[in-house]
Specification:
With about 100 residues, this protein is an alpha+beta fold. Helices cover about 30% and strands about 40% of the residues. The chain is globular.
């Protein structure tokens, strides 16, 4: 946990445990699978099919929205779609290796 101080008030930042993973990228079919989890508990699986311009969802992220009420389901879908397009357009088949290379 980290605290940031200004002269008048404090902000406290805590780890939420919310994770978006990209376990499967199919560069040929232009499909990306993502999961939205709290720690290890998958709440929603999202499949972005860029060939068909279709997003499929399975699950519910209400528990996540309770933790971060400023975000909504559409926000998470937009983030996943952005990364799906980035992976496909840049021929990134292993998102974990890509993100690891950035750190």
């Amino acid at each position: 946990m980290m605290k940031i101080s200004t002269e008048e008030d404090w902000s406290e930042f805590k780890r939420t445990g919310i994770i978006i993973n990209y376990p499967h990228v199919d560069l040929i079919k232009k499909k990306v699978t993502a999961t939205i989890s709290i720690e290890e508990d998958v709440k929603m699986t999202v499949i972005v099919d860029l060939n068909l311009n279709v997003v499929s969802k399975n699950g519910n992220i209400d528990e996540i929205l309770d933790i971060l009420p400023d975000d909504d389901e559409e926000y998470y879908i937009e983030v996943i779609r952005y990364w799906a397009e980035m992976f496909i357009n840049n021929n990134i088949a292993d998102p974990k290796a890509y993100f690891d290379s950035l750190t």
